[in-house]
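Issue 218. Parser rejects a valid record. Input:
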Amino acid sequence: MTVTRKFLTREDLAPLAHAVGRTLKEATRIRGGSKKGVYRLTFEDGTTAVAYVWSPDEDLWDAGPGDPRDPFSHASGLTLFTAAADRLATAGVRAPRLLYADPTHTHLPADAAIVEDLPGGTLEDLLDADPAAAPEALERMAALLDTLHACTGPRFGKVAVVDNGGSSYGGSCAEIIVERALGDLDELTAREPRVTAVHSQLADWLGELAARVRPRTEPPALIHGELGADHVRVTPDGDLALIDIEGLMYFDVEWEHVFLRLRFGRHYDALRTDGLDDDRLRLYRLAMHLSLVAGPLRLLDVGDFDDPEFMRGIAEHNLQQALSLAERT
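Output the parser choked on:
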């Protein structure tokens, strides 16, 4: 079913701008996000900022509020954002600076925030357009990862939960990943005949991989959770800043590295690190592929993602990767 969305106008956002003492000249919705609205605000004095709006009309997943005690519940909302921003600041990892937060829906009928506008593009843009600058940028990215992952938490889970003394569902990171992967696999058998044909092989392989994972004594690391180069902005001075940070959590660092390898591709070698658990990497790789088939197909069910062919491409690529793993079992 296609959902009709109502995006915000300059008039809608003007009161939010007024809250930071500015007169809004123009508001432009930035494409790419799927869980919140992102608008570049241009003020009458020529300065700019970015507005984040967490409303049902802006959330293309139509997922509704998630239970934050589930580390992989829907990562959307001002509470998750502010907790993540505070934790990153403490860790010394840059993110857009929070200028104003409105949790009481005073200016819009939704949670909203204004953050600094970081001019320039993403790390993904730089890697595509300026190969000569790539080595230095990747070196900075590797240093950012070292800083981020050196931070640990007392328990796994979303930062907003753990840093407030709470705990998450599940006995371990690996247990949660296996449970999610089996759920994704069952979901896919109902919609993808190619998965149905190898369901038992994939389920058995997940079980075998999980059985090889030994209990971990080290505390979970601070990870972004969806750290592609498109979620890193490059400032004019070459500094890097993380965006889309609501999913920040304490978890096995191998989960982050599986995602990094998928998204950075040939550039991943510059981000490799020692000490990763190969058994966890193998398990998490298969689970990640299944997630990146089920998730995009779920999003396409809503019917109004702005680039459906791109999302279908993600699902098909990861389906092929999962099927190739099934053939090796």
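Fixed in the parser; the record now loads. The domain at 123-327 is CATH 3.90.1200.10 (Aminoglycoside 3'-phosphotransferase; Chain: A, domain 2).
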